[in-house]
Each structure stands twice: as C-alpha cells, then as structure tokens.
Amino acid sequence: MYVPWLVDAARSTGYPVVEVPGWQTRGHGGMRVVEGVVGHHTATADSAPGDYPSLDVVTNGRPDLAGPLCNLGLGRSGTVYIVAAGCAYHAGASRWLGFLDLNDEFLGIEAESAGAGSWTAAQLDAYPKLVGALLRYMGRGVERYAGHKDVCVPAGRKIDPVGIDTSWLRARAAGAGNPVGVEILERVTITPSDAGEHVARVFLSGSPGSAIVVRPRLAGDGSARPMWVSNIFAWGSDHVGVGRNPGQLPGYDPKLTSHRRYEVPGAVWADIRYSAAEPFDIDLVG
Ligand SMILES: [Zn+2]
C-alpha cells in the first residue's frame, strides 16, 4: 500500500510540511503493512547549507543504494518533508517485535543531523511529535517506535539516531496530544464464547470525534494476543451509516497485533465484526 495520510499526520504536528513531488507513488513497491516507525539521522555534515540538505539523497538514493531511503525527512527547522508513501530502503537487515526486515512494515524518518548527537531545539520538539502523529494515524502505540540502533541486524551495526534516546522519544510521543480527542467514555470488555466470528454492538456519543479503539489483551511479555476485526458498521442517530467500513479499504489488514483506532464520526452505535480466542477490550472515545 502507498500510505495516503502522511501529509495529514505531519501537519498535525503544527510544523511546516513540504510535499516532495511524486511522494504519493514513490517507493520500492508499496508497504506490505504499516506497523511502526524507525528513527534515523542522515549523517550529512553540519556544514551542508540549508534546512534539509539530505533531501536529494534520501529521495533519489546514492550510487550503491537506490532511493527512496526514507518515508519522511525532518529538517533542522522542524519542517517535515514527505518523501515516499511506499517502501523505502531505510532499515536494511533488521528485526523488531517479531517483524523481520522492516522496510515494508515500518515507516522511516531521516532527521537532519551529522550524527554527533547535536539537534536543534525545533527538532527535539518536532521529532517526537511526528512519531506520535504517525503512530496515531496507524493506530499503534508508542512501543512501535524504535531507533535504527534498536532494530538493526546484527546488533551494533547502526548507531542512529545518536542523541535521541528511544525511551525519551516514546515518552514525549505519548504526551504529544491528540488533536482529534482521546477522552475515553467507557471501556467495554468482550468475552467471546468461542474463536469464531461474532458481532459486538457498542453505543457511542454521536460526537464528531467518536471513535472505537479495539485492544487485544497483552501477554506477560508485552506482545498482544492476536485477534481479527473484519469490519465495522457504524450508524448515526438518523439511521444513516457513518464512518468507513474498514473491511472495504484497500490494504486493510483485519489481524490486530496491537490496539487499533477506528474513526466513526457521528456514530451512536456500531457493530464490530470480530473473531478472538480470548477476552479483549473496546474503548469508546468521544
Ligand atoms: Zn539509519
């Protein structure tokens, strides 16, 4: 899939956004899934002029590696550059949370820094906001951010992004706020009678920010018990369908391995078609 919401997510940070022409169809094919974010630094010299001197190389590549080399760039000013909606060669040999070779599974951010650990104040503010926004749009939690140094194979092959501590960034990303509103009205626990397909009906506020967050239970090691949401049918107070039936979206993956948010603006009730072997939670957001 070619991720269509990169610009929307980037704009929600409040920082300027530059769309690199052709970003919508740039990639080494599409993303297979969109499950997280990997952070990098560009390692371009501090003496290179401009806000994002690495733009040409991350877009078009270098003699030994064809571009795009990231999905998004982060300039010295905090400006976000939208480079590629498809698969970018940013992570190389990599492994993380059961994912293998993350290029077509995780979005890559190449932030402008020489790699000595120096960042502008704008970047230290914008980097976690951008990560938080991307994860929110993909319906994933901050644990789905990692630095290249955390995911590279073999371990120690990469050190980037130097000066950006993974735990620090996750904590900042979690606190970056949600412009849509994440007030949890109610948490409903669903206990399936068996692992077959069932429908759970939930009742919502009908507000413009109404959403459903489906939360598989976590095992002791922090990994989620997999479950499936094949579709959601949401209805407004006038009995007209609202939101989008996710099962009809191109590239929709019904398998949930972490919590996922479904926007159902204006919905007063929704039927969630699921299969799960174990109890799970649904947060109703307004
Ligand atoms: Zn890297």
From TrEMBL:
Q: Supply the InterPro entries for this chain.
A: Amidase/PGRP_sf, Amidase_domain
Q: Which GO terms describe its molecular function?
A: N-acetylmuramoyl-L-alanine amidase activity
Return one Gene Ontology term, BP aspect: peptidoglycan catabolic process
One Pfam family name is: Amidase_2
Q: Where is the N-acetylmuramoyl-L-alanine amidase domain?
A: 22-162
Which Gene3D superfamilies does the entry mention? Peptidoglycan recognition protein-like
Q: What is this protein called?
A: N-acetylmuramoyl-L-alanine amidase
> Species name for this entry?
Amycolatopsis iheyensis
Lineage, uppermost ranks: Bacteria, Bacillati, Actinomycetota, Actinomycetes, Pseudonocardiales
